Protein backbone atom coordinates (compact mmCIF):
# COMPACT_ATOMS: atom_id res chain seq x y z
CA UNK A 1 0.00 0.00 0.00
CA UNK A 2 1.30 3.39 -0.97
CA UNK A 3 1.44 5.53 2.17
CA UNK A 4 -0.20 8.87 1.59
CA UNK A 5 -1.92 11.29 3.96
CA UNK A 6 -5.53 10.61 4.93
CA UNK A 7 -8.07 13.38 5.44
CA UNK A 8 -11.80 13.73 6.02
CA UNK A 9 -14.59 15.73 4.41
CA UNK A 10 -17.41 16.13 6.92
CA UNK A 11 -20.62 17.78 5.73
CA UNK A 12 -22.28 17.89 9.16
CA UNK A 13 -25.18 15.92 7.74
CA UNK A 14 -28.35 15.66 9.81
CA UNK A 15 -29.38 12.04 10.38
CA UNK A 16 -32.92 10.78 10.81
CA UNK A 17 -33.99 11.54 14.39
CA UNK A 18 -31.25 14.17 14.78
CA UNK A 19 -31.05 17.91 14.21
CA UNK A 20 -28.52 20.60 13.32
CA UNK A 21 -27.11 20.64 16.84
CA UNK A 22 -26.42 16.91 16.90
CA UNK A 23 -24.87 17.16 13.43
CA UNK A 24 -22.45 19.84 14.68
CA UNK A 25 -21.70 17.92 17.88
CA UNK A 26 -20.99 14.78 15.85
CA UNK A 27 -18.66 16.75 13.57
CA UNK A 28 -16.58 17.68 16.62
CA UNK A 29 -16.48 14.04 17.76
CA UNK A 30 -15.38 12.93 14.31
CA UNK A 31 -12.63 15.55 14.21
CA UNK A 32 -11.34 14.52 17.64
CA UNK A 33 -11.43 10.85 16.64
CA UNK A 34 -9.55 11.17 13.36
CA UNK A 35 -7.04 13.54 14.99
CA UNK A 36 -6.11 10.75 17.41
CA UNK A 37 -5.78 8.36 14.47
CA UNK A 38 -3.30 10.72 12.78
CA UNK A 39 -5.39 12.01 9.91
CA UNK A 40 -3.95 15.05 8.16
CA UNK A 41 -6.97 17.37 7.95
CA UNK A 42 -10.74 17.65 8.22
CA UNK A 43 -12.65 19.96 5.91
CA UNK A 44 -16.21 21.27 5.91
CA UNK A 45 -18.16 22.45 2.86
CA UNK A 46 -20.37 25.46 2.24
CA UNK A 47 -23.92 24.59 1.21
CA UNK A 48 -27.03 26.75 1.34
CA UNK A 49 -30.79 26.19 1.39
CA UNK A 50 -30.25 22.51 2.28
CA UNK A 51 -32.33 21.60 5.28
CA UNK A 52 -30.24 18.64 6.39
CA UNK A 53 -26.75 20.14 6.12
CA UNK A 54 -25.34 22.07 9.11
CA UNK A 55 -22.17 23.48 7.55
CA UNK A 56 -23.75 26.59 6.03
CA UNK A 57 -21.68 29.08 8.05
CA UNK A 58 -18.49 27.24 7.16
CA UNK A 59 -15.91 29.56 8.71
CA UNK A 60 -17.88 29.60 11.98
CA UNK A 61 -17.96 25.80 12.09
CA UNK A 62 -14.25 25.62 11.23
CA UNK A 63 -13.48 27.84 14.21
CA UNK A 64 -15.67 25.73 16.50
CA UNK A 65 -14.01 22.47 15.45
CA UNK A 66 -10.52 23.98 15.63
CA UNK A 67 -11.24 25.07 19.19
CA UNK A 68 -12.20 21.52 20.13
CA UNK A 69 -9.10 19.89 18.64
CA UNK A 70 -5.36 20.35 19.06
CA UNK A 71 -3.31 19.55 15.97
CA UNK A 72 -5.32 18.38 12.97
CA UNK A 73 -5.64 20.88 10.13
CA UNK A 74 -9.15 22.35 9.73
CA UNK A 75 -10.40 23.88 6.53
CA UNK A 76 -13.00 24.43 3.87
CA UNK A 77 -13.86 22.02 1.15
CA UNK A 78 -14.82 24.53 0.17
CA UNK A 79 -15.71 28.13 0.53
CA UNK A 80 -17.83 29.00 -2.51
CA UNK A 81 -16.09 32.22 -3.47
CA UNK A 82 -18.87 33.54 -5.76
CA UNK A 83 -20.96 34.00 -2.60
CA UNK A 84 -18.44 36.29 -0.91
CA UNK A 85 -16.15 39.20 -1.47
CA UNK A 86 -12.48 38.16 -1.34
CA UNK A 87 -11.86 40.74 1.39
CA UNK A 88 -14.41 39.14 3.73
CA UNK A 89 -12.90 35.68 3.23
CA UNK A 90 -9.38 37.04 3.77
CA UNK A 91 -10.52 38.60 7.05
CA UNK A 92 -12.39 35.48 8.19
CA UNK A 93 -9.59 33.05 7.43
CA UNK A 94 -6.95 35.51 8.61
CA UNK A 95 -8.80 35.55 11.93
CA UNK A 96 -8.94 31.76 12.02
CA UNK A 97 -5.22 31.48 11.22
CA UNK A 98 -4.44 34.02 13.93
CA UNK A 99 -6.43 32.02 16.47
CA UNK A 100 -5.18 28.59 15.35
CA UNK A 101 -1.79 29.20 13.68
CA UNK A 102 -0.54 26.60 11.24
CA UNK A 103 -3.81 24.69 11.20
CA UNK A 104 -6.13 26.44 8.74
CA UNK A 105 -6.74 25.52 5.07
CA UNK A 106 -8.76 27.53 2.56
CA UNK A 107 -10.28 25.44 -0.21
CA UNK A 108 -12.11 27.51 -2.84
CA UNK A 109 -14.88 26.53 -5.24
CA UNK A 110 -16.41 28.44 -8.13
CA UNK A 111 -19.98 27.09 -7.77
CA UNK A 112 -22.51 28.83 -5.51
CA UNK A 113 -23.18 25.68 -3.49
CA UNK A 114 -26.90 26.23 -3.95
CA UNK A 115 -29.61 26.97 -6.50
CA UNK A 116 -29.63 30.25 -8.43
CA UNK A 117 -32.44 31.79 -6.39
CA UNK A 118 -30.49 31.15 -3.19
CA UNK A 119 -27.33 32.48 -4.80
CA UNK A 120 -29.15 35.74 -5.52
CA UNK A 121 -30.39 35.83 -1.92
CA UNK A 122 -26.75 35.72 -0.82
CA UNK A 123 -26.44 39.20 -2.38
CA UNK A 124 -23.81 38.38 -4.98
CA UNK A 125 -24.66 38.86 -8.64
CA UNK A 126 -24.75 36.00 -11.10
CA UNK A 127 -21.57 37.10 -12.85
CA UNK A 128 -19.31 36.38 -9.87
CA UNK A 129 -18.70 32.77 -10.94
CA UNK A 130 -17.07 34.13 -14.10
CA UNK A 131 -14.78 36.34 -12.00
CA UNK A 132 -13.54 33.39 -9.95
CA UNK A 133 -9.94 33.52 -11.25
CA UNK A 134 -9.74 37.26 -10.56
CA UNK A 135 -11.23 36.82 -7.09
CA UNK A 136 -8.73 34.08 -6.23
CA UNK A 137 -5.85 36.35 -7.23
CA UNK A 138 -7.36 39.18 -5.19
CA UNK A 139 -7.59 36.87 -2.18
CA UNK A 140 -3.93 35.93 -2.61
CA UNK A 141 -3.08 39.63 -2.71
CA UNK A 142 -4.88 40.29 0.57
CA UNK A 143 -2.82 37.58 2.27
CA UNK A 144 0.42 38.86 0.73
CA UNK A 145 2.97 41.15 2.35
CA UNK A 146 3.02 42.97 -1.00
CA UNK A 147 -0.39 44.47 -0.26
CA UNK A 148 0.91 46.73 2.51
CA UNK A 149 0.74 49.86 0.32
CA UNK A 150 -2.79 49.20 -0.94
CA UNK A 151 -5.73 51.34 0.10
CA UNK A 152 -7.75 48.24 1.05
CA UNK A 153 -6.05 45.67 3.29
CA UNK A 154 -7.17 42.58 5.23
CA UNK A 155 -6.66 42.56 9.00
CA UNK A 156 -6.04 39.99 10.30
CA UNK A 157 -4.93 38.24 7.16
CA UNK A 158 -2.14 40.27 5.58
CA UNK A 159 1.17 38.41 5.69
CA UNK A 160 -0.34 35.19 7.03
CA UNK A 161 0.37 31.79 5.49
CA UNK A 162 -3.10 30.38 4.78
CA UNK A 163 -2.74 27.61 2.17
CA UNK A 164 -5.19 28.10 -0.70
CA UNK A 165 -6.53 25.08 -2.57
CA UNK A 166 -8.57 25.07 -5.76
CA UNK A 167 -11.52 22.68 -5.72
CA UNK A 168 -13.02 21.03 -8.77
CA UNK A 169 -15.89 18.80 -9.81
CA UNK A 170 -15.22 19.21 -13.55
CA UNK A 171 -12.25 20.15 -15.71
CA UNK A 172 -12.75 23.94 -15.45
CA UNK A 173 -10.85 24.58 -12.24
CA UNK A 174 -8.01 22.24 -13.19
CA UNK A 175 -6.63 24.88 -15.57
CA UNK A 176 -6.79 27.59 -12.92
CA UNK A 177 -5.11 25.47 -10.23
CA UNK A 178 -2.33 24.65 -12.71
CA UNK A 179 -1.93 28.27 -13.84
CA UNK A 180 -1.65 29.56 -10.27
CA UNK A 181 0.52 26.69 -9.05
CA UNK A 182 -1.88 25.74 -6.27
CA UNK A 183 -2.87 22.33 -4.86
CA UNK A 184 -5.92 20.79 -6.45
CA UNK A 185 -8.71 18.89 -4.67
CA UNK A 186 -11.28 17.02 -6.76
CA UNK A 187 -14.80 16.14 -5.60
CA UNK A 188 -14.89 12.61 -7.00
CA UNK A 189 -17.13 11.55 -4.10
CA UNK A 190 -20.15 12.97 -5.93
CA UNK A 191 -18.89 14.00 -9.41
CA UNK A 192 -16.39 11.34 -10.50
CA UNK A 193 -17.05 11.51 -14.26
CA UNK A 194 -14.29 13.99 -15.16
CA UNK A 195 -11.88 13.20 -12.34
CA UNK A 196 -9.14 11.49 -14.35
CA UNK A 197 -9.31 13.99 -17.21
CA UNK A 198 -9.15 16.89 -14.76
CA UNK A 199 -6.07 15.67 -12.92
CA UNK A 200 -4.32 15.01 -16.24
CA UNK A 201 -5.05 18.59 -17.30
CA UNK A 202 -3.77 19.87 -13.96
CA UNK A 203 -0.51 17.91 -14.17
CA UNK A 204 0.11 18.77 -17.81
CA UNK A 205 -0.38 22.51 -17.34
CA UNK A 206 1.07 23.01 -13.85
CA UNK A 207 3.33 26.01 -13.32
CA UNK A 208 5.51 26.07 -10.18
CA UNK A 209 4.77 28.91 -7.79
CA UNK A 210 5.95 30.28 -4.48
CA UNK A 211 3.22 28.14 -2.90
CA UNK A 212 3.97 24.86 -4.65
CA UNK A 213 6.85 23.55 -6.73
CA UNK A 214 5.12 20.50 -8.22
CA UNK A 215 1.52 19.33 -8.68
CA UNK A 216 -0.32 18.14 -5.60
CA UNK A 217 -3.63 16.32 -5.99
CA UNK A 218 -6.09 15.33 -3.32
CA UNK A 219 -9.03 13.16 -4.34
CA UNK A 220 -12.15 13.01 -2.22
CA UNK A 221 -13.89 9.63 -2.39
CA UNK A 222 -16.60 7.84 -0.45
CA UNK A 223 -15.31 5.21 1.96
CA UNK A 224 -17.26 2.83 4.17
CA UNK A 225 -15.24 0.40 6.25
CA UNK A 226 -16.62 -2.43 8.38
CA UNK A 227 -15.57 -5.79 9.85
CA UNK A 228 -16.93 -7.63 6.82
CA UNK A 229 -17.80 -6.87 3.22
CA UNK A 230 -21.44 -7.78 3.89
CA UNK A 231 -21.68 -5.30 6.76
CA UNK A 232 -20.12 -2.53 4.65
CA UNK A 233 -22.54 -3.31 1.83
CA UNK A 234 -25.43 -2.86 4.27
CA UNK A 235 -24.04 0.45 5.54
CA UNK A 236 -23.74 1.62 1.94
CA UNK A 237 -27.53 1.85 1.66
CA UNK A 238 -27.52 5.14 3.60
CA UNK A 239 -25.30 6.70 0.93
CA UNK A 240 -27.51 5.28 -1.83
CA UNK A 241 -30.51 6.93 -0.21
CA UNK A 242 -28.63 10.22 -0.05
CA UNK A 243 -27.75 10.06 -3.76
CA UNK A 244 -31.33 9.16 -4.71
CA UNK A 245 -32.53 12.22 -2.79
CA UNK A 246 -30.08 14.45 -4.66
CA UNK A 247 -31.02 13.05 -8.07
CA UNK A 248 -34.79 13.17 -7.50
CA UNK A 249 -34.72 16.41 -5.46
CA UNK A 250 -36.37 14.67 -2.51
CA UNK A 251 -33.74 15.29 0.12
CA UNK A 252 -34.24 13.79 3.58
CA UNK A 253 -32.11 13.28 6.69
CA UNK A 254 -29.53 10.51 6.36
CA UNK A 255 -31.49 7.30 6.85
CA UNK A 256 -30.55 4.12 8.75
CA UNK A 257 -28.90 1.30 6.82
CA UNK A 258 -31.05 -1.25 5.06
CA UNK A 259 -33.84 0.91 3.66
CA UNK A 260 -34.34 1.97 0.04
CA UNK A 261 -36.84 4.42 -1.50
CA UNK A 262 -39.09 3.10 -4.28
CA UNK A 263 -37.56 5.57 -6.72
CA UNK A 264 -34.24 3.69 -6.50
CA UNK A 265 -35.79 1.00 -8.70
CA UNK A 266 -36.40 3.45 -11.55
CA UNK A 267 -33.74 2.51 -14.15
CA UNK A 268 -32.71 6.12 -14.86
CA UNK A 269 -32.32 6.85 -11.15
CA UNK A 270 -30.38 3.67 -10.45
CA UNK A 271 -28.07 4.36 -13.40
CA UNK A 272 -27.40 7.91 -12.17
CA UNK A 273 -26.68 6.62 -8.66
CA UNK A 274 -24.29 3.99 -9.99
CA UNK A 275 -22.43 6.65 -11.97
CA UNK A 276 -21.98 8.69 -8.78
CA UNK A 277 -20.59 5.59 -7.02
CA UNK A 278 -17.63 5.05 -9.34
CA UNK A 279 -15.25 6.53 -6.74
CA UNK A 280 -16.85 4.80 -3.75
CA UNK A 281 -15.00 2.14 -1.77
CA UNK A 282 -16.57 -0.11 0.81
CA UNK A 283 -15.71 -3.35 2.54
CA UNK A 284 -13.49 -4.92 5.14
CA UNK A 285 -9.98 -3.74 5.91
CA UNK A 286 -8.57 -6.20 3.40
CA UNK A 287 -11.00 -5.17 0.67
CA UNK A 288 -10.36 -1.47 1.22
CA UNK A 289 -6.61 -2.05 1.16
CA UNK A 290 -6.78 -3.87 -2.17
CA UNK A 291 -9.17 -1.50 -3.93
CA UNK A 292 -7.73 1.76 -2.61
CA UNK A 293 -4.19 0.61 -3.37
CA UNK A 294 -5.19 0.10 -6.98
CA UNK A 295 -6.96 3.47 -7.12
CA UNK A 296 -3.97 5.32 -5.66
CA UNK A 297 -1.54 3.53 -7.96
CA UNK A 298 -3.60 4.23 -11.08
CA UNK A 299 -4.25 7.89 -10.35
CA UNK A 300 -1.01 8.85 -8.60
CA UNK A 301 -2.84 11.08 -6.14
CA UNK A 302 -0.86 12.65 -3.30
CA UNK A 303 -3.56 12.61 -0.61
CA UNK A 304 -6.84 10.82 0.00
CA UNK A 305 -9.81 12.63 1.51
CA UNK A 306 -12.81 10.55 2.46
CA UNK A 307 -16.50 11.26 2.93
CA UNK A 308 -18.29 8.62 4.99
CA UNK A 309 -22.07 8.91 4.99
CA UNK A 310 -22.86 6.37 7.69
CA UNK A 311 -26.00 6.74 9.81
CA UNK A 312 -24.68 5.36 13.10
CA UNK A 313 -21.93 7.51 14.63
CA UNK A 314 -20.12 4.59 16.28
CA UNK A 315 -20.06 2.71 12.98
CA UNK A 316 -18.78 5.84 11.27
CA UNK A 317 -15.94 6.28 13.77
CA UNK A 318 -15.11 2.59 13.39
CA UNK A 319 -15.00 3.03 9.61
CA UNK A 320 -12.33 5.73 9.96
CA UNK A 321 -10.27 3.41 12.17
CA UNK A 322 -10.59 0.51 9.73
CA UNK A 323 -9.55 2.75 6.84
CA UNK A 324 -6.56 3.96 8.81
CA UNK A 325 -5.50 0.37 9.46
CA UNK A 326 -6.02 -0.53 5.81
CA UNK A 327 -3.83 2.35 4.68
CA UNK A 328 -1.05 1.63 7.14
CA UNK A 329 0.94 4.39 8.81
CA UNK A 330 -0.15 7.82 7.61
CA UNK A 331 2.58 10.00 6.14
CA UNK A 332 2.00 13.57 7.28
CA UNK A 333 3.11 16.35 4.93
CA UNK A 334 3.43 20.07 5.50
CA UNK A 335 1.01 21.67 3.06
TrEMBL record:
Residues 18-236 form the Luciferase-like domain. Pfam families: Bac_luciferase (PF00296). It comes from the Bacteria. GO terms for molecular function: oxidoreductase activity, acting on paired donors, with incorporation or reduction of molecular oxygen. GO terms for cellular component: cytosol. Gene3D superfamilies: Luciferase-like domain. PANTHER family: LUCIFERASE-LIKE MONOOXYGENASE (PTHR30137:SF6). To bacterial alkanal monooxygenase alpha and beta chains. This is Luciferase-like monooxygenase.
Amino acid sequence: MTKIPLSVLELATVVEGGNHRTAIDNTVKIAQHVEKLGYQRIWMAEHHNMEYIASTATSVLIGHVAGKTESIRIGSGGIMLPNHSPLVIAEQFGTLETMYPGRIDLGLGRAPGSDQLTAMALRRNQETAHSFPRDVRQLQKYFSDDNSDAQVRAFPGEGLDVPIWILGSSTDSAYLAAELGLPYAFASHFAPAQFRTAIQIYRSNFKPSASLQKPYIMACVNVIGADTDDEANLLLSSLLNLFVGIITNTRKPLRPAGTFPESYNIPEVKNAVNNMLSCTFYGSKETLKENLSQFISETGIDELMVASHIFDLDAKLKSFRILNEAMGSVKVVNL
